[in-house]
Amino acid sequence: MNETLNIYKPFPARLEEVIDESPLIKTFVLSPEKEFSFKTGQFIELTLNGIGEAPFTPSSSPLVKDRIEVTIMKAGYVTDRIHELEPGEILGIRGPYGRGYPIEEFYGREVLILGGGCGFAPLRSLLYNLIAEKEKLQGITLCYGSKTPEDCIYKPLISELRNTEKVTVLRSVDQGDESWTETVGVVTVLLEQIDIDVDQTVAVVCGPPVMMKFATIRLMEKGFTEKDIYLSLEKNMSCGLGKCGHCMMGQYYVCKDGPVFRFDEVKEIPDLWA
Q1: Could you list the residue range(s) of the whole structural domain that residue 20 is in?
Q2: What is the pTM of this model?
């Protein structure tokens, strides 16, 4: 007899490794008790028994089914407790939920990715997916910004990407130090360093709201159309099922209709960047 799926019940996942990415950000490597599939850009609900749960977008490759990685910034009660976890502990996973990136719509085009801070987490998953299918793309350009060199995450990945065919990587920091040899300034200044055909390019943006706002404005100024700008709006998500209404944004439930949206879908929503 088939067991009825309980969409509210998490399934167990063992914490295998904790990777320090920056002073406030860690990546948690989990082994779920069963194979787990998701589309890049979708999110999960991560449960810590007796504490609570919170939504996170996996930062690992969607092509890997027996391991899932979640990159988490220390920013509140649940995330503070998650940051205290040690390998061997058991967490719960619900999901995946929401609408991810439409990878097939990127085929034949250049993909320009703009990430800021911990917004690099879902973009890392997207990068893994795109690189696996890079022969179907014209190329991939990553522009990533953070506050300081110490705040830059995924440093080994950056080195790997810079040695990957058809991938270009540019980084900036708001405030450099004596060790920093790359660009100093907000992430949008990197757009002046790249030569792209906007008619053949889609742009993907993820990061803090203010960064996403000004990145979108700058992309529009450079000639991108609204339908060619994809935003990951991971705001106010709670239940993951569109039941609680906490993530209502205009006509959309972010957890069901997003978190990935084209800009033309959401441009009229008041307080979009709040």
Answers
A1: 11-97
A2: 0.94
């948690």: which residue's tokens?
Answer: 28
Residue after which a domain boundary falls, among 55, 76, 97: 97
Please give the angle made by the CA atoms of 38, 42 and 234, to the nearest 5 degrees. Answer: 160
Q: How many domains does the chain have?
A: 2
- Report d(CA 189, CA 1) in Å as an integer: 59
Residue whose pair of structure tokens reads 């800009």 in the numeric block: 263
Angstrom distances, CA of residue 59 to CA of 72, 88, 183: 10, 20, 25
- Tell me which amino acid residue 261 is: F
Last residue of a domain, one of 46, 71, 97: 97
Instruction: Please check whether residue 254 lies inside any domain of the structure.
Output: no
Per-residue pLDDT in tens (0 to 9) along the chain, 274 residues? 445 567 778 999 999 999 999 999 999 999 999 999 999 999 999 999 899 999 999 999 999 999 999 999 998 899 999 999 999 999 999 999 999 999 999 999 999 999 998 899 999 999 999 999 999 999 999 999 999 999 999 999 999 999 999 999 999 999 999 999 999 999 999 999 999 999 999 999 999 999 999 999 999 999 999 999 999 998 778 888 888 888 888 899 999 999 999 999 999 998 898 7
Does residue 273 lie in a domain region? no
Strands (E), the chain: 11-22, 25-32, 43-48, 52-56, 68-73, 90-97, 110-116, 139-146, 167-173, 183-184, 201-206, 229-232, 248-249, 252-253, 260-262
Rounded-to-integer distance, Cα 226 and Cα 230, Å: 9
For residue 143, give the nearest of 111, 201, 187 by alpha carbon: 187
Q: Is residue 247 part of a domain?
A: no
